[in-house]
Amino acid sequence: MSLDHPVLSSLLPVVFLIFIGFVAGKAQWVRGESVRDLSNLVFLVLTQALLFRTMSSVHIEQLDFKPVVHYFAVAGALFFAMLWLYGRDSRASVLALASIFSNTLMIGVPLVGLAYGQEGLVLLFTLISLHALVLLSAATLVLELQVAHEQAAVLGERRPIWRTLALAVSSAVIHPVPLPILVGLAYAQTGWGLHPIIDRPLALLGSAFGPIALVLVGITLSQTPIGQHLKAAIKLSLVKTLLHPALMLLAGWLLGLRGLHLAVMTVAAALPIGANVFLFSQRYQKEEDAVTAGVAVSTAMAVFSVTAVMAVLPWLPQ
Q1: What CATH number has the domain spanning 6-315?
Q2: Domain residue spans in the chain?
Q3: pTM
């Protein structure tokens, strides 16, 4: 396979960034005690800028939601199936999110742009505009409910379900991920746009998110006993890069998706685990090592899974 192939040209920079972080971690250029601070920088500053700026230009009336609704229906079904299989606790929420959350930005955008052109990118941007809002917000709500339930069990309290739900909803909304998405989406509907004085710094911060997050994955990977978590990482990666796109292809076909719509949604499902899941696990301190290893392993696996998906799609009857 040529290095100019869309899959390799999109995935290799991601692998290289993780490798740079791995080397930096092994060389102790970034020490273990600094990782949490770097994670907070990415999660609380860079992610905020990226999500708000992305959503501030989204005009709901201009989006084609049909293929995206199909995508989220499949992702939601797989999330709750994996949540059940992993044990229905707070750690299970993080692992279930890793099973469905794709690296749509760093890998998806260049890959779809090279393979399917501008029309494919419009479909992918529609998905990206809602990807974090729907998946991260839903996962945050489920996890906050589980955390509230677990804390109540430890403290011996029996809270009314409405109170637990209210606390979980407020924690899920007043949260570093859903809040800038909702604020950005609300701002977009005013039609005011962002002045260059505001837009340029946000663009710079947002563009730094992907590279720094992936370097941070590499740093964390250098400090993770990968052998102990390789089995869990492979399991997560197989679900993410094989089962997720297979379900998307089957369900999309049965629900009437065809052509470019089906291709873009299936390729998006075949992408490796996104760095947001790594930050999510760091934030809640749940399954950090397994998710870190999963990001790296799924990125390697995606070379084969995405190539296979893109090879199969043209042979489907229209």
Answers
A1: 1.20.1530.20
A2: 6-315
A3: 0.80
